[in-house]
Amino acid sequence: MTSSARLFRLARVLCSALALLLAAALVQRAEAQDISAALSQLTTNKYDDTEAALGALALSGSPAAAGIVSALADGKLVFGGLPPRVFIEGPGGALLDPLTMQPAADAPAVKPVRVNNRVRRAIEAANGALSLVSPDAGKRREAALAVGRSRDEAALPALEMALAKESDPKVKSAMNLARASILIAKEGITPAERIAAVELVGAEGNQDALAILRSVPESAAPEVKQAAAVAIEGIERNLAMWGMAQNVWYGLSLGSVLLLAAIGLAITFGVMGVINMAHGEMVMLGAYTTFVVQEVIRTSYPGLFDASLLIAIPLAFLFTGLIGVLIERTVIRFLYGRALETLLATWGISLILQQAIRTIFGPTNREVGAPSWMSGSFEIGHLSITSGRLWIIVFALLVFFALLATLRLTRIGLEMRAVTQNRRMAASMGIRTNWVDAMTFGLGSGIAGIAGVALSQIDNVSPNLGQSYIIDSFLVVVFGGVGNLWGTLVGAMTLGVANKLLEPYAGAVLGKIALLVIVILFIQKRPRGLFALKGRSIET
Amino acid sequence: MTDIAIPEPTTAAEPAPAAKKELTEALLYLDAVTVTFDGFRALNALSFTVDPGEMRAVIGPNGAGKTTMMDVITGKTRPDRGDVFFNGGTTDLTKLDETQIATLGIGRKFQKPTVFENHTVLDNLRLALKGQRRALPNIFHRESAAARERIDEIFETIRLTEHRDRLGGALSHGQKQWLEIGMLLAQDPKLLLVDEPVAGMTDAETAQTAELLREINANGHSVVVVEHDMTFVRDLGVRVMCLHEGSVLAEGTLDQVSANERVIEVYLGR
Amino acid sequence: MLEVQDINLFYGAAQALRGVSLTAEPGKVTCVLGRNGVGKTSLMRAIVGQAPVAKGSVRFNGEDITTMAPSERARRGIAFVPQGREIFPLLTVAENLETGFAPLKRADRFIPDDVFSLFPVLDSMMRRRGGDLSGGQQQQLAIGRALTMRPKVLVLDEPTEGIQPSIIKDIGNAIRYLRSKGDIAIVLVEQYFDFAKELADHFIVMERGAVVMSGDGAALEDPDVRNRIAV
Amino acid sequence: MSMTRQPALLGTSGLIFLAVLFVAAVLVPVLNLYAAPDSAVHVPTYVVSLLGKYLTYALLALSVDLIWGYVGILSLGQGAFFALGGYAMGMYLMRQIGTRGVYGDPVLPDFMVFLNWKELPWFWYGFDMFPFAALMVLLAPGLLALVFGWFAFRSRVTGVYLSIITQAMTFALLLAFFRNDMGFGGNNGLTDFKDILGFNIQADGTRLTLFVLSALALGLGYILCRFLVRSHFGKVLVAVRDAETRVRFTGYRAENYKLVAFVVSAMLAGIAGALYVPQVGIINPSEFSPANSIEIIVWVAVGGRGTLVGAALGAVLVNYAKTYFTSGMLAPYWLFMLGGLFVAVTLFLPKGIVGTYYDWREKRRQHDDIPDEPLATPRPAE
Amino acid sequence: QETIKVGVLHSLSGTMAISETTLKDTVLFMVQEQNAAGGVLGKKLEAVVVDPASNWPLFAEKARELIAKEKVAVVFGCWTSVSRKSVLPVFKELNSILFYPVQYEGEESERNVFYTGAAPNQQAIPAVDYLMANEDVERWVLAGTDYVYPRTTNKILEAYLKSKGVKEEDIMINYTPFGHSDWQTIVADIKKFGSAGKKTAVVSTINGDANVPFYKELGNQGIKATDIPVVAFSVGEEELAGIDTKPLLGHLAAWNYFQSVDVPENADFIKKWQAYTKNDKRVTNDPMEATVIGFNMWVKAVEKAGTTDADAVIDALIGITVPNLSGGFSAMMPNHHITKPVLIGEIKEDGQFDIVEQTPGLIVAEEWSPYLEGSKDLIADWRKPLNCGNFNVKTGKCGGAGQ
Ligand SMILES: Nc1ncnc2c1ncn2[C@@H]1O[C@H](COP(=O)(O)OP(=O)(O)OP(=O)(O)O)[C@@H](O)[C@H]1O
Ligand SMILES: Nc1ncnc2c1ncn2[C@@H]1O[C@H](COP(=O)(O)OP(=O)(O)OP(=O)(O)O)[C@@H](O)[C@H]1O
Ligand SMILES: [Mg+2]
Ligand SMILES: [Mg+2]
Q1: Which of E18, E188, E247 sits opposite A365 (nearest CB)?
Q2: Are B127 and B118 in contact (CB under 8 A)?
Q3: Closest by alpha carbon to C15, among B169, B202, B177, D375?
Q4: Which end of chain E has a smaller Cβ tally under 10 Å, C or N?
Q5: What φ, ψ does residue C216 adopt, rounded to 5°?
């Protein structure tokens, strides 16, 4: 079967289903039809047949149809027996008769009815058809939008009928838009009607509208084409501006990731001066903590899954912080005043940690899921914002300000700074430098750990995770100015936004190269970074 | 009796006619030099001149701007405003960097002694010794007999002969002071800027240092020396300038200056 | 109160102290005199714990603190004003002073008024970074910082270095004042002989890492002492 | 009074080092060619190429030590110079393949043919001539170092800032060379070399010659570095490392000193790369990877920063450890060993192997040579 | 007792360990199985494992060590093309045998190498065909990591698509660096490209670690397989094990084997493999199958030749046929590549693939692509008398287009 023929048929199924269902709804009487033919089509284990059966089901007007379609969508529709029959798998694996929803008399070996993308689309269409007259306004609106996207002429009569009955203004405007979308490309309507449609669609102003407007047929009247061209231009201009904003948003989001990755380093490296090559591994440990937490939740407390990250954050902080303290006590503390040698030791530590994780968890990626509140996206104007990214930005800023407050406002913060600036003298002031050193390194590591929790949401959780952030982290800290937390914040955001503004023009690879070159040049201008520490003590 | 010059805190954009004359004669000429750090005025329209062969002592309260003044002369700090000329107005020091200024013949001893900690005392002097400064020729540089002699001389003067093979970093505070003075001598500059040379020295050493500086000065070098030790300043027996809040508060002989009410009030104490 | 007995101290292979002893009493000033490089600073470092001693003992109020960490010594009340000031360069003046709170109980965590009446300049520069101050201002800050700790023993390594005459006088007065309070033992390293002479209750003179003379303040008049520290 | 002697051009350890190198350069070929293959002293060919590789690494480490150990420039981009030297040599070797490539194109290397390139990009011109390629081995890294260093040192970029921008430099080059459009074979790099100066690159004789050449380059490189650091120039370098501002106030142009050292070091790295490529048979962008450059630093630190012999020794040692650990029973745990080695060296041999040895020797000498100063007896004032 | 040594040259550390470690385990597993079955030629097999640590020069060094020092009879190894290229001269020089089990860009046929992974025509082209026929795709995004395999594959695909009448403006090609982790812009671009009214699909040659963030971003931006399906050539069961697959439902992969292949041979293999690894969740994947096929072929060839001598085994290998794990047989062809079925799978929620299409027959590898200018006239045939990996049918000479 050729593709266009299939498309055409699908559309017809959808539309006649619409029409019929509307009619049925209007007369308030649903006539149960014999859908057994459709049901038996579902047992052939062929996608084409399944698709056809879906059409028939939608057409049938049977009250059982909706249940069957949703069972199929959920993978609960099974078939088996001789001759093969369809069942709905009920709770606890009981086989139910699809029409009556009563337990089936016998229980043959069954297989699920297979579904592929095509079938999934047919399910959507059937659901759409079934829901244009759904009592739920939200579903009606969804259906209208779906029809609008499909832009199928055959759906027009059904749509118009539904429109006539619709009272909810939101749903109504969606239906109007759907109607206009169809009209634009329809043959044989008056230019005036078409221009009205063009205007209606043009007012929508989004990417979809653009696609619809481009479908004005070649044969349309010149004034229509003119109107469409004007609308297209307007939308493009508008979208270009939104696109800019969108890129800035992406940049901030990337910046927040960089900030998270770098912020722990801003402590261990920026404040303490340890060239901490194991920083990335601390991030990795945080990510693996998240994995372990989720694993425990999955097996023992599935209900808590949405809270898994919240549980993981303190645990990751404590765990990586503890590892950090351990590293500081056993290795780093012998190296104060020998900053460059910390590079050698921490490089060794990073190798050991990587291999340890590889030995314990295996070399492959580990699955860390997203809780529901971190999935999905929403729009502000034409700005598309994914919740996960939004939370990461919020989280990064929270961590940043918490850290800033700790360093600036608390006693331990003061002691940390004093110790790192002059360890010997701090000791003579009565500050327990050992303890403060351990706490500082632990704090930096712990922060890296909670960064790992967040990064597990957008990147691999694998033994290599740390390696992929270490270069960027150092770059951010140095670009912002070593020893200045604000520098790290502004540096991360600047690099993120610059990267995302460059990317559309230069592509991901050249964009990244360009960014590196820009940083190199920038450092020539400001050899101590964006927020350089100034003062006598620095200059000599 | 007193010779107090309290300069107007206005900024003289052009040197006054009288100053112009001084400019052509002076070895070092500062006019209306102002330096601010984040809004804090460390030097405030500071003007003075040093004549060729002159030795000048600078005193003044802590934070008066003495070290900053040296920073400006040696190119470490750029003034916000004002002129700094060297060699009778031929060279504008504000346009040059530290290296160029050092090559012109301005040597400096820092307030906090800074020596090359990982070089032996001997090598510290070798590095400072006047001579070839360019990179490539120095790959093939060989030490001359004259240079060797000069270094021995300096060792005698600073009395570190027995420490010559120790690392600079292993010296005590006072020994570093001496080494730095030695390095300054080795550079053989036209103008020596000496910041608190006798801090941490015993009284006898202080007297010796004064003697040494006088000797250097007698050999035709100009010297500007900053010190808080009045005995030392008295030993030097030269013209004294007292800075306060970034400008000259008083100038004259030590007796004149130390009789000044303001100087007593802000600096010497009663 | 503080007793140093017969200590040896090495830097690598080089011996800096040879059997040095010293005592300090509350309400008394003990002066350490000697030429450059004789080991005065090394002795102070040994007292506060910044350099380990190879032999001998340091006792504080009868307790052996020879191997104790510097921070613990500070917590017991030994405050140090080091040669070279050692200000925390990136902390503000206020924060520099506050580092002295570590040994204090919460209720005592304020900067004593003495500090500001002694060094008014600090009060006006509370928000500036310590490292930006002039040398002399830093020296004042270092002393103020030590006083913030309410020490029982105050170890001062050439505290007048780089300080303007009027404030040297003030420091002298301050030391006298602290001495008069009677509960602080003061150890003072000083090259400025007249200053030392005025203050010293006891003194030792060092040479090549060893004590070559000692006595009470009056004995400083002895010309031999001056000779010892002359070249 | 006599002046202290200038240390000899080659100290004892230097002489031992050169002697060992010389013996190896003679003995390895002899034992490879003339010892019976099954005798205990036979050096198999694969060991020869392994040793050859270590020697080029040692030269690379030497180049790092020159700038890190003596000038304090912690370059995290030294691998870039090594790789550029390697690419220059690789391009020459590539052009030597001629029609023996899989597509048999007389001019274009294989990767260009299958990406549909029609003609040789301009920057490939001249690489068919060995002298030109040899020049580029020096010039490509040298020029990059010159330009980069000129800007960076003049702007007084120092310390970690310099380290990180060198890292950014090599990272940018890594990304650039990964791109197929750059015309250097992308990720696959340059491989499948056939011969060098007309000699079959896989022949034992060629291998031995390359080995001996590597030894020679290392020896000469060592002498050059030694000569540089011992000269007045070298003393200024160390002074720059410890107190750059002070050097300026003394009248030296610190940036020029750094620049000379940086360029020399880059060229040494380039030579190392050029000798490396024919011995391992491949050059690919991963040589630019920042991790590689960090590893070089680690070799130097293990051997002893600021001791030239140590740098070379560290390179050989760490790489031998890598070869050894990555085979056999230990293979799954080799990162533990290597990581542990690095930690242990920092903790127990703080100045690296050779540095710690020097310290120990110094200490002994002091104990031996300098008798304790006479003790003045304390006496109370009367 | 004398043993036959088998070299295993897969990275166990570094960036590639993530993929290659499994293959090392596979060879060890096969060796154990073979030894249980009596070994080869009456001798036990002994695996020699080395770790080239994802470092290409180290690959060459280790290859040399395996062949020259350990004297292995055969080596199973490499994943990336560059590692193969790096060891190639070594295998040629020392005349040994390498089995290379990963899909790659083709354009190579060497006497000492046997390629048991897919050539582009055994993976990419059938996948595109499937999308055209079943998903009615008209607009294509070719997204890949910027290195040789994606570049070559995309070149071939571009030529192929154009030959099918796809217009220039309906193809979007995008390259990203290795390990690219921020996909926001690119996924948004894909979304935009896909909203032009024509059915759009993404053909992904994105490599390695970059896939996880890519798929996560697809999920985040709400791109579902029913809107814009993504078909990948480097994403298998092993990779999916590290991703939350719920949002990926319906995205596709094209391979020559899936763990979900429902035939007894496969079920048997999976059971033994999971028993061997003592992990009943351990997955199998395509390169593993290719390793298994290669291993079995080698065993069979050694037995046929009666010796492990490289020349004899190389000659014996051509024509060897062994069962693959998808219910058929794979044969070693004269071009040193094997015949393979092509399977298209849709990602299921449990991280497995639902096989939605399987080519009816086996496909012979086109090591030299007819869609590339430089190689369309080349063929490889290692049988006598041709004995050539790059025979030019136009000029009738071995050695490409050269004189
Ligand atoms: N880089 C800087 N940043 C901020 N303030 C500075 C800086 N350099 C100097 N100052 C301030 O300028 C003033 C003058 O300092 P300067 O060091 O010149 O004083 P001084 O006269 O040398 O004092 P002293 O006698 O104590 O050495 C001081 O108050 C100091 O705090
Ligand atoms: N860190 C060090 N390493 C090696 N030797 C040192 C070190 N510090 C001091 N010395 C040496 O120890 C001896 C005593 O030094 P110390 O600093 O105690 O002297 P000082 O009496 O305080 O001198 P000054 O009056 O100059 O401050 C000197 O010879 C000095 O060179
Ligand atoms: Mg000063
Ligand atoms: Mg001292």
Answers
A1: E18
A2: no
A3: D375
A4: N
A5: -95, 170
From B115, B158, B167, B172, mutation site for ligand 2 pocket: most ligand atoms within 8 A of C-beta: B172
- Residue C213 sits in which domain range? 2-229
Pocket flag, ligand 1, residue A537 (CB < 6 Å): no
pLDDT at position D369 over 80: no
pLDDT digits (tens, 9 = 90+) for A91-144: 877 888 888 888 887 778 888 888 888 888 888 777 766 677 677 788 788 778
E385 upstream amide cis, omega within 30 of 0: yes
Q: What is the mean pLDDT of chain A?
A: 84
Would you state the pLDDT for residue D374? 32
User: What CATH superfamily classification does B26-268 receive?
Assistant: P-loop containing nucleotide triphosphate hydrolases (3.40.50.300)
Whether residue A3 has pLDDT greater than 70: no
A517 and D172 within 8 Å at the Cβ level: the answer is: yes
Q: Is the CB of B77 under 6 A from ligand 1?
A: no
Task: Give the tokens for residue E141.
Answer: 């995004």
Higher-confidence residue of A31 and E292: namely E292
| Tokens read off for C202 | 């006891």
pTM (2 d.p.): 0.90
Q: Where are the domains of chain D?
A: 12-364
φ, ψ at D72 (rounded to 5°): 75, 15
The token pair at C8 is 């040896």
**Chain B CB within 8 Å of residue A2 CB:** no
- Residue D77: the pLDDT is 93
pLDDT digits (tens, 9 = 90+) for E276-286: 999 998 999 99
Q: Inspect the interface and report whether the beta carbons of D340 and A523 lie closer than 8 Å.
A: no
Ranges in chain A annotated CATH 1.10.3470:
243-539
Say what the pLDDT of residue A26 is: 47
Quote the pLDDT of residue E127. Answer: 93
Domain count, chain C: 1
Give the model's pLDDT for residue D379: 33
Q: What is the pLDDT of residue D22?
A: 94
**Contact C39 CB / ligand 2 (< 6 Å):** yes
Q: What percent of chain D has pLDDT over 70?
A: 93
At position A126, the amino acid (one-letter code) is: A
C-beta atoms of B117 and D241 within 8 A: no
User: Chain E neighbours among D 199-258 (CB < 8 Å)?
Assistant: 202
The domain that holds C17 is classified in CATH as 3.40.50.300
d(CA A388, CA A372): 9
Residue whose tokens read 């993504």: E230
Interval B111-126 mean pLDDT? 90
- Tell me the fold of A243-539: ABC transporter involved in vitamin B12 uptake, BtuC (1.10.3470)
C41 touches ligand 2 (CB under 6 Å): yes
Burial class (CB in 10 A: 0-12, 13-18, 19+), E168: exposed
User: Would you call A471 and D167 a contact, using CB atoms and an 8 Å cutoff?
Assistant: yes
